[in-house]
Design a protein that fits this description.
This protein is α+β, with helices and mostly antiparallel strands and 484 residues long. The chain has 12 helices and 7 strands.
Length: 484
């Protein structure tokens, strides 16, 4: 069987370059454009320089010919005058040789732009001079006078030729200068055009390459904030699209895990809390003597069972609250919020608690509007405030200070309580950790309040710290100010 010919790869497959390949192609294209402009400018300057060299050589040659023509004219006059006096044939040959050299020189000068009229006038003086040398032997003085007239004419023509040579040199210099200016302007236009085109190409490639990066950034931020309802669709180079598909797979996987976690929490809440409630009810019935009177030992056992059942139910409920808080921390609903107003509302909500201890609560400073989830941030501040109220001494003072710096908003909360033991500072924000120092006469906490504060603050991209500048506890919350 004849093998079917292989179909050429579609153009779309050829154009599916990776980010690195596209970036390399952009650099090569821009570098090639600038190199072409540089080579074009170099060739232009080389051409102008070649023309300059030719013009300079021609000007030097024409000037040298004009000088040599003057020397030949002197040699011709000297030979002619000596021949008239001495009648020596060698002198006549010397004159003829100089005249022939002058004719040849004038021919070369005409080839270098000397006007033909001047050369013709100059050569027209040779024949009358030869006629005087070959004519009848009149008086030497008359022949000398006739030669003087002809040679003065040659002197005048030599001056005109020298002036014409200077004019030709000046014209060539001006033309060369004009060509240099034109070449410079052409090179400047090419370079500026290449730079402008390179900038446009760089901008186009930059926009095309950074757009998928911005989409990736938004997609990753959405996954971090648990926004699982928006599919990840990244377009651009092939590796970016591949990364987008991986992120979409990750989004689906995280969404599935979140749903599994929610189902687990609901299941745990139902399957654990219900039997524990029944167990507590049964223990209470035993203590009440519903099943018959209990001995002292049996009553003590029932009391221990009831106490441990209540403790276990409280721990399970604390675990569920912490898991729910950690789960909800990734679901932020941001809006512009006045932090000072929010803090005032929280202080008012807990008025009964701090008034019962005769505390004074101060709110100082101010901060710009922040795009935050007001409910979750209220829960974080509320836990922190409640914790400080529990540990504050009667008639003490709580100070909440708002401040801001470039890129950051700070909320400082100081109390006058016993502070945190040095050994507990590293673990104070861990879930279910309860420090050594506890308020006198207060119910021991579950140890999840500060961990929930950290979860909600970190979900906003901020941080919460316990500062060691006592004597009381000093908590500081720092939130990013996105509008800076």
């Amino acid at each position: 069987m004849r093998a079917s010919p292989r179909r050429p790869a579609p153009l779309s497959n050829v154009l599916r370059l990776s980010f690195r390949q596209t970036l390399l192609a952009a650099f090569l294209l821009i570098a090639g454009l600038l190199a072409a402009a540089s080579l074009g400018g170099l060739f232009t300057l080389e051409r102008v320089m070649a023309q300059s060299r030719v013009a300079t050589a021609s000007a030097l040659l024409l000037t040298a010919d004009a000088r040599q023509l003057g020397e030949l004219r002197v040699a011709m006059e000297r030979s002619a005058r000596q021949y008239i006096v001495l009648d020596d044939p060698s002198l006549l040959r010397g004159f003829t040789q100089a005249a022939d050299d002058a004719a040849r020189l004038l021919g070369e000068m005409r080839n270098h732009d000397l006007p033909a009229g001047l050369a013709t006038q100059w050569l027209a003086q040779i024949e009358p001079i030869k006629d005087q040398l070959d004519g009848p032997k009149a008086s030497i003085q008359l022949r000398q006078d006739a030669l003087s007239v002809r040679f003065r004419t040659l002197d005048r023509l030599n001056d005109q030729i020298a002036a014409e040579v200077r004019r030709i040199d000046d014209d060539r210099s001006a033309a060369l200068q004009a060509r240099l200016e034109a070449g410079r302007a052409s090179v400047g236009t090419q370079v500026l055009g290449a730079i402008g085109l390179a900038a446009l190409l760089a901008l186009a490639f930059g926009v095309w390459l950074t757009r998928p990066l911005k989409r990736l950034e938004r997609a990753i931020a959405g996954l971090g904030e648990n926004r699982m309802d928006h599919p990840v669709d990244i377009r651009g180079p092939s590796d970016m699209r591949s990364l987008g598909r991986r992120l979409e797979w990750l989004r689906l996987r995280l969404k599935e895990l979140d749903e599994d976690k929610a189902r687990f929490l609901r299941y745990t809440s139902h399957e654990l809390k219900t039997p524990l409630a029944a167990l507590r009810e049964g223990v209470a019935l035993l203590e009440d003597g519903v099943a018959g009177p209990l001995t002292a030992d049996q009553r003590e056992i029932a009391r221990i069972l009831g106490q441990n059942t209540a403790t276990l139910q409280g721990q399970i409920e604390a675990l569920l609250r912490f898991n729910a808080a950690a789960f909800e921390a990734r679901r932020l609903s941001r809006s512009d919020t006045d932090l000072r107003q929010l803090l005032h509302a929280l202080v008012e909500e807990q008025r009964l608690q701090w008034q019962a201890r005769h505390l004074e609560v101060r709110i100082e400073g101010d901060a710009p509007l922040l795009a935050v989830d007001a409910d979750k941030l209220s829960a974080a501040f509320g836990n922190l405030l409640s914790n400080s109220i529990r540990f504050s001494p009667v008639n003490g003072t709580l100070t909440i200070t708002l401040s801001s710096s470039p890129g950051t908003v700070r909320i400082d909360l100081r109390d006058q309580g016993p502070g945190v033991a040095p050994a507990d500072r590293e673990r104070i924000f861990e879930p279910f950790f309860r420090g050594e120092v506890q308020p006198e006469g207060a119910v021991r906490g579950t140890g999840i309040g500060l961990s929930i504060v950290r979860e909600y603050v970190q979900a906003h991209g901020g941080r919460v710290d316990l500062l060691s500048d006592g004597p009381g506890a000093h908590f500081r919350i720092e939130l990013p100010h996105a509008k800076d």
